[in-house]
């Protein structure tokens, strides 16, 4: 049995393999209501049909002002819950499992989406064009974005309640797991790092972890004891004076105590203009430190592109799952191709596709060549 295609159980949920679809922003809610559409159903179902053990959605805002762009998906109202239910149904119909990534963009919110052909990139959308006043640890902007408003304690308490409410809606919508976005300079990360949080109230100094830990604890209560809870972190801030993987490992221990089951280790995104090299597997060492020192399962992400590379990450004990992003966008059947390359019995299959896989081992049986 390969490591990549060994099942992984978190709480009461078993994932068929450890090749997971990484959360990737899509900015595809064109009507700006935060409601997902038929496009999202097709988008996420393709990864499940392609054999991914878990599909994690794009960052999904817990409040309207928590969106990265006006075209972001949301889970702050019931109409969005109903729309997401059609997506989870599509994924489940082809045998997959799906998690929602809940997020608040903080000072990095309200920007133009910057897709090919768009006129603007990495700039804030003016209020008259559908933008909004953003919320941050302070009034210091991210790069050339509009300055945020320094959040009050009451507003941060509201953010915690919003994460819990959105998590309840996610369970109602049929999601199999919940992930909190505590990375990439978004609000939970912005409050966490000493680089961006120099507050002198209860949310700063020794209370920098308060927002993320409180959100995780509130979400655990909201979703009950059976649903797996993941947190994405920037294991390394990639900023002078910022957090490193050893700091994140200490944080992971606190997250484990409030009911977090797996820490999804990315890096960076905190400050504009950070310089780091994205070589293959560049974030795996951070996941390994968090796993070893934090005593919590981890996922590794970042330029993991081929089957044997992913297999080695798991065999080395650097992580418990791998998040595949751009490689799965290029090939939604990445997991099936990886199973064939690793000659992995028990890999997830779609029997109706047998013509494409004849002569390979699927589900422990060799698919016959049709006469």
TrEMBL record:
Species whose genome carries this gene: Isoptericola haloaureus
Cofactor(s) needed by this chain: FMN
Protein name: tRNA-dihydrouridine synthase
Coiled-coil boundaries: none
Alphabetized Pfam families for the sequence: Oxidored_FMN
Residue span, NADH:flavin oxidoreductase/NADH oxidase N-terminal domain: 4-342
Source domain of life: Bacteria
Region annotation Disordered: where it falls in the sequence: 111-133
Keyword annotations: Flavoprotein, FMN, NADP, Oxidoreductase
